[in-house]
Amino acid sequence: MKRKLVILGGGESGVGAAVLAKKKDYDVTLMDESSLKEGYRSELQKAGVLFLEGGVNEDELLNADEVVKSPGIPEKNAWVKKLRAKGVSVISEIELAYRHKGESKIIAITGSNGKSTTTSLIYHICKTAALDCALVGNIGYSFAKQVAEDPKPLYVAEISSFQLDDIVRFRPDVAVLLNITEDHLDRYDYRFENYIRSKFRIAMNQTSGDYFIYNLDDDVIIQYMERNPIHSIQLPMSMKQKVNQGGYIQNDEMHVKTGSEEQSMSVYDFALKGKHNQYNTMAASVAGATMDIRKNKIREAVQTFENLEHRMEPVATVRGVEFINDSKATNVNSTWYALESMTKPTILILGGVDKGNDYTLIEDLVKEKVKAIVCMGVDNSKIHAAFDGITRLVDTGSAENAVQAAFQVAAPGDVVLLSPACASFDLFSNYEDRGKQFKEAVKNL
């Protein structure tokens, strides 16, 4: 008898899981309560996967041997509650991919901020060293689909807490935990501890031969590790103290050591600027060193890396006003990092779907650096409550209006920074859509 697998959710990860499951001879059906994107629909048809859109077949769902749940579906979803009540095994797409990856290795990266940048940089280091690898996970390409269609000996995977929530055996050879700050609390019953525990699942199945790279300067991480032992080889990174193994930065010099090999490099040679990116670069360099990549290749990759779209991306300078697209900043900490790296007077575009944001985190930076805040959301009341009386506030309801309002406030030599600190689902389909509309509006000035 074939194992009966139901995929719940028909986005990138769900379709990838379906394609892999079909290839591995499961009896597979994909269900999505809304309609599928045309591209995904044709992919499923091509793979010969049965799918149901615009609804769920309850009997079939509850009689599955196992269900692969999209990371976007929360625990409080009615179908998930029914599956839990019946005791049906629910896993994530990365768990399915892990089971079928064979002997391949995984470098997995998580953290509240800097995941995409660090994952991309690790991938760039591996490619520079001519390793045969793929970039997968939360960064946009399904891990399961990669395993199904073009398996590689090494996967560099960006992993979100939502993906980690439903792993069972998933075990990366190298796990990277960049930082933990309050984010997605709406998914974790507004309990920070639940979110912290979720992030640490990246290391839960690791054994004594695996590596765990973590931020020694992050109090949340250290306090958790004091109470919950990690079984893998620990490689801390710090800007505050020297470490024997791992990475540290002192006097603008990065030192990386795994085993007996040591490497040093000036932070002025890093392609990525800003203090937060020094942590990202350090994490990526330590990860590269665990793969026995030569020092000169790590150095070359760190110097030649190009930053991601929607992450502190320079868009244009219009009549002396610089525009920066940081649409990927979907939480307050990301916006804090963006503001921290600003050296010119800043007009900040904020707003979107609030995930339980605490704006006091950026209050001092707003006082110090921000000339005006342009609100861009359906409901801007929380931003007004936080910043009324601190700086000038302007309300807008679209990317185009926000860019025009910011441009009117700005003077030559100023920066307009889109760093919303919120999810994008009120006015946009996702942060990429928000960033693209922002860039389009800047071009139309």
Structural class: alpha/beta
User: What CATH architecture of the largest domain would you give?
Assistant: 3-Layer(aba) Sandwich
> How would you sum up the major sheet?
9 strands, mixed
Summed over residues and divided by their number, the pLDDT gives a mean of 94
Which fold name fills CATH's third level, the topology of the largest domain?
UDP-N-acetylmuramoyl-L-alanine:D-glutamate ligase
Strand content: 15-25%
Count of domain modules: 3
Proportion of helical residues: 25-40%
Number of strands: 20
CATH class of the largest domain: Alpha Beta
Distance between the termini: 62 Å
Stretches with pLDDT under 50, minimum 5 residues = none
Q: Write down the Rg.
A: 22 Å
Overall shape? globular
- The CATH homologous superfamily of the largest domain corresponds to Mur-like, catalytic domain
Number of helices: 17
Instruction: Give, in spatial order, the strands making up the sheet with the most strands.
Output: 7-8-6-9-10-11-12-13-14
